[in-house]
Amino acid sequence: MSARAPDISGWPIAAQIGMLVTIAVLPLVAALAYLIWDNADQGLKRAGEEALRLAQISALDTARIIDEAQVFLTSLHGQMEAAGDSARTNCDSLLARELAHQPRYALIFLLDAEGEVLCSSRPLRECVSCRDVLTRLLDRPVKNGIIVGEPIWGSISQRWVIPILRPSQTEGKLAHAIGASLDLERLYPLAGRTHLPKDAVTVVVDSGNTVVIRSHDPMNWIGHKIDKPELLDLIARRTGGRAEGPDGVRRQYGTAPVAGTDWTVAVGFPEAPLLAAMNREIIANLVYVAAVIALAYIFAFFASRNIVGPVRRIADTARAVASGERGRRVDPRGARELATVAVGFNRMLDTLGAQENALRENEERLALAIEIAADGIWDWDLNTGRVFFSRQFWLTLGYAEEEEFRERFHFHTALHPEDRTHTIAAQQKTLSDGALFDEIYRLVRRDGSYHWFHGRGQALFDSNGRAWRFAGAITDITPQREAQDALRRSEERWRFALEGHGDGLWEWNARSSEVFFSTQWKAMLGYADDELPNTQAMWESLLHPEDHAQVTTIMDKHLAGELPDYYAEYRLRKKDGSYLWTAALGRIMARDVGGHPLRVIGTQRDIGERKRREEEEKLRQVRLAHSNRLVLLGEMASALAHELNQPLTAIANFASVGVKRLAAPQPDVEALRDMLGMIGEQALRAGDIVWHIRDFVSKRTAKHEPVALDALVRDVLTLAEIEARSAGVSIDLRISGPLPKALADRLQIEQVLFNLIRNAIEAMAQAAGERSLVLEVSVDPEGRPLIRVCDRGQGLGGRTDEELFAPFSSTKPDGMGLGLAICRTIVEAHGGRIWSEANAQGGATFGFFLQRAEA
To answer: What angle in degrees, to the nearest 10, is found between the helix axes of 709-727 and 669-697?
Structure first.
């Protein structure tokens, strides 16, 4: 016989509703029971995931602390190395000063090769137990250059501390070690207290399962080993789960490794509060279910037949809303209870509509943000294998349609062969260890070309530590890479061109004073690349001592902005000990935001050959000037003979008369004395003429020194008047005083002035009328000594200064054309200038000025 459903059509409507309510409520009760159980289970899972997340955060915080300690000790090690022996002598004050800026450390200390304490930021020399602990610490393994010890009770600081050492080795043996002790009480906030719930606990253990840090430590766990198997298993596997702690409290734990150490962080939530909360939720839900059942049966007993219509209207509205129709509302007519339900249902519809609109707007905003983003976005569901690519992603790779992109694009095969290994390895590391994916690689585009991309991504992990989602973005950085490559190639060509020309390159960091010298720079001095260090001290040791002040002054002016470029000529000592003349040309290539120089780049050129030619040219000029003086002397020979003949004739006549008077019976002694005086005067006059000629034709090295021009001019006139009298020319000397002294070589300026006076005398040889020459000595408007020679000769004949002062250009039939050229060379070598101008009354004026000697 088959079972038949009971016929309830004849039952009263209240009974029918009661039966229907019973049938409807029982599945509701079952569903609520399942939801309660599932909510409790999900609550525990969420607690475990939260514990795991906080454990990872605490691990990152703790790793950052160790990294900061490593950076601090490395920086302090560099300071100690740079200071040398003086640092060890005065290291107590140095360490104390460093400790003032590092409040996380209880103390800092320096050990020698035997583990003895050389100095510390706090008194440590009397602590024998500390010395034993530090000696044992040297036997521990070194990771990333750092030794991290077990927690100890500091006898000096009276706190729990963790010793950390940075050893320094020389030729494989310990030279010394710089260490610090981390104050655990100051690490508690960084170990999780700031982001942990009130009843949670953070524990950091080392590889020996010894507690290193605990966020709060009422039971003195620090320094003791954990002996709870469940918790040890979670720490060993570095995963999450339930376990009993050393205090007997069961917790939901999450664990994570501390990067750079052998430590593990465990974060636990007590189960008792979680279970109590779940029990309260279960009781509340049961009460709610009981109330719902009671209300349902009360509703069943008090409903009437006209409830069917309102219920049908509600059902029809619900069905229409479920099918996607919007704007429907229930007519709140019928029984009072159903009318109330209808009003509530309408409010629920309004709320659902508002939420649906908000959700749609958020989805539209997110879609719009993804569409307009410059980066290509991807999201990979590792459980299903499905990958979402934003529109910008496949547009960046040159695809116009998403369908074609999905058919042809596969990440592994799209990678450039040279980038495939390291990119896939980085991706696997992200999926296994949770490391941030941050790589530069090339992907093939639709047209077959490769573009450079910067890929960033992050993986999400479930409670079992397994990655289930991998998302990120890519940015096309091809223009930046091409610009970098072009810059590098340009720099390589620039360096090749300069070094191919024989120039050496140098680069100076104005902030750190670090200097780079190219191989060609060192080869120019006879050194191999590895024979000279790239240091400023090396360059200063090669610089000639006489050139140091000049080079420093020029560089300071360039750095201060007074000179657009740095250019200096100086000598550098070669490998064989000789000095080489070089020319350095440089310019500031980079400045900081404040405009201060950061980097100066320049070249170094061998100018030894040029300097040699300049010295030869100077010597040739001296010889030429000397030859010119000899030529002038030869041309003056007849005038000199006439001039010397006068005093010599007078001497002979006076001597003859004196001899005759001596032969007289009674010689006039007074008259003889006067004659002898006149003979002496004439002899001195002849001697002065000879000495002036000797000085004029002497050959010596030029020497610039302060010279009184009035005395120089009068000495030159002593010689010039000899030729002037022979030519019937008078010389009018006009000195406008007071005159400053000129910075000059006396002999060379005498030659210039003598040449100009002699040229003026010759220019008036054929002139009719008065032959007079005016010699003016004065000061120009800028306070420089000025000399002018004015004649009344034949004039300049329309010739310019370039023609007059050009070598081998002369108006004399037998002239060499070197006089005025030599004059210009000498004056310009003195920092002055020489010129010519026609006189209004006829004749010409030649003038020149010299540099004023500093008082």
So the answer is: 100
